[in-house]
Amino acid sequence: MAKTPDFTKTMQDMMANFPIDTSSMQEAMKSQTAMGEKFAKIALGAAERSTEISSTWAKDSIARMGELAVVKEEPTDYAKAMSDFASASAEMAAEHMAAFAEVAKKVQMDTVDLMLTAGKDMAADAQKVAEKATRETSAAVKKTTAAAK
Question: Environment class of residue 96 by beta-carbon count within 10 Å: exposed (0-12), middle (13-18) or buried (19+)?
Fold first, then answer.
């Protein structure tokens, strides 16, 4: 019977003749993970600050509701307590929404800064790779030219 040829050795020889420089891939992976870490820090910082704002807002609202639960002498006192609660709630909402806006603005600024830095780093890396490729190509051309003479 015919035996299926084993191309393992052939493939190994072929791959050995086409060496691949994986250092650029390793560097790209390192830079991507470093960038991911920085993005995660930005996002987690914003989440932490937003949680603090929400918690404070809830505590303030609960404290104000406690004032509504107090027994009043006159029916008009209940209306005044509701009016005061509504005014305080509107004021708290404005303050806390402004705090959320500050968090969003900081995240936006940090993200833009990170992207600009990453762009500069990528441009520098691309220039290094291009220079290396030029040097290697020039060397290969010189070797070929010298061998042809």
Answer: middle
Task: Tell me the per-residue pLDDT of 71-93, one tens digit each, with 9 for 90 and over.
Answer: 989 989 999 999 999 999 999 99
Average pLDDT score over the chain: 86
Tokens matching residue 51? 């949680």
Q: Please give the average per-residue pLDDT across 97-105, as a whole number.
A: 96
Task: Count helices and strands (H / E) in the chain.
Answer: 3, 0
pLDDT given at position 133: 78
Q: How many CB atoms lie under 10 A from the CB of residue 141?
A: 10
Contact 27, 125 (CB under 8 A): yes
